[in-house]
Fold this sequence. Notes:
Helices cover 0% and strands 38% of the residues. By secondary structure, the chain is mostly beta strands. The chain is extended, with a radius of gyration of 16 Å. Zinc ion (ZN) binds next to loops.
Amino acid sequence: xxxxxxxxxxxxxxxxxxxxxxxxxxxxxxxxxxxxxxxxxxxxxxxxxxxxxxxxxxxxxxxxxxxxxxxxxxxxxxxxxxxx
Length: 84
Ligand SMILES: [Zn+2]
């Protein structure tokens, strides 16, 4: 990703970060989670052990980087390639 963008709402500098899925917690009580991914296509919901889950074939997956404005809190997200 290029340099951090400036906020389209107020013009302040934005900080890079990520959105965390809040559904998981480790057995030790430490915060744990899953970083969202962007998937090309339409999700299909299938009933699983824990309710309806998103199902998809092998697909293009990109990481989601979210910038947060240091002044007003506006969030702006980008899908980016993940280095492996
Ligand atoms: Zn702002």
